[in-house]
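Appendix B, example 12.
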Amino acid sequence: MSQKSTKRRAFLRNTAALTAATIVPYHFTASRAIAQSKNSRLQYALIGVGGNGTRTCPVPAKVVDVVALCDVDANHLRDGNQLLTDGKADTHDDYREVLQRKDIDVVQISTPDHWHAKILIEAMLAGKDAYCEKPLTLTIDEGKLVRKVQQKTGRVVQVGTQQRSSFDKFNKALAIIAAGRLGKLKRIVVGIDSGGWSPEVPVAEVPDGLDWNAWLGPGPDMPFRYLRNPKRDPGKGYTNGHTQFRWWYEHSGGKLTDWGAHHVDIAMLGIAAAGQSNAPVSVDGTAKHNTEFRDGVPVQTDRYNTAMQFDLHVAFAGSDVDMNIRHDVDNGILFEGELGRLFVNRGKLVGKPVEGLAANPLADDAIAQVYGGGPMIGNDREAHWVNFLHAIEHRILPRSDVHSHMKMLNVCHLAGICCRLGRKINWDQTTESVVGDELAASMMKRPYREGFEIEM
């Protein structure tokens, strides 16, 4: 057995105490795991240091060794290295250098959305387990390829939809539904807020330290744009780059794959918990954009172009439940059933079925059953990482595996196609294909820029 394999096995043995516990304060169990496995922890690299990278890395930093950071912005790389490791990690500006390193076991991918699938696929092929931020892909066809490679390589991939690991709100809501307290579900309202708006954003000089060509990567070639927003801090104005990339279809799916990747996810888990079909068959509705569209393509190229407002309805096979995705209601998910309704978001879980728990509590293991029997330590993002480590230890699918994530994310992608074309999109879940609409079907994939194709 190689030295690396020995270290890996030692780490997994030593983190058993961490992953086998039930509802114990995270800081205590993490500290114990670190003390027990000081020289045997997994070697971790963060690819995409800005934004979500630095926000989510401190959790794994408690239980893995952060040995490398990668970013195409030298400023992010410098600041992130100082913040996360006191400047001790190796730094790279090319993710391929990270994937080639034999000493790295786990990578976290926190790049803009258009880079996710390419880096993830190549990471799995390089033998790395991966934690990848949502949304997992930019297109439906990318999801098919990600799933194929995951099955081929057997790598453990956790998607960063940490709401799946919320025990006190989202999983409790799912447990209430699974216990039949709402009865048969009839309607679900998913509130994900409005998308971004901008005026005309002019072409501007690329900021010092940013490799714009590398940042664009597999996406289409386009000039860097920036306009100062007097309502925001300097450097955080209107742009097609950092922080605001998700308002451009070239890089993202807008609010539908941003908050939608969280709340549509819980909504579809709720349908399954009620014992009803969550296999989508169509998406229909209306949307408003910041620009005119022609055949699904924005006519103007100098402003945000993802959907700002939307009122969409998703239908499911063999079920009369209607899922309504809206911008103009409270952020969260409203479940309405024959016996009552509840509302859940990151701040609250309310409704008569929730109030009824005082007199008629759920079974002791109800939430654990919904969660899938994995370790229940901490909550939300912390628990999500512990679940990921547990899945690595046992070589099993984590809580947010790529297969169930893509079934949900395909709904978000179809919603985006519906918004761009302004018409109903029909879907065959068995073949995972758009039905009866050649143009819509062509939007299931996008070409990669030359030199940035996925390396298989």
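The chain is about 35% helix and 20% strand. The first helix runs from residue 3 to 14.
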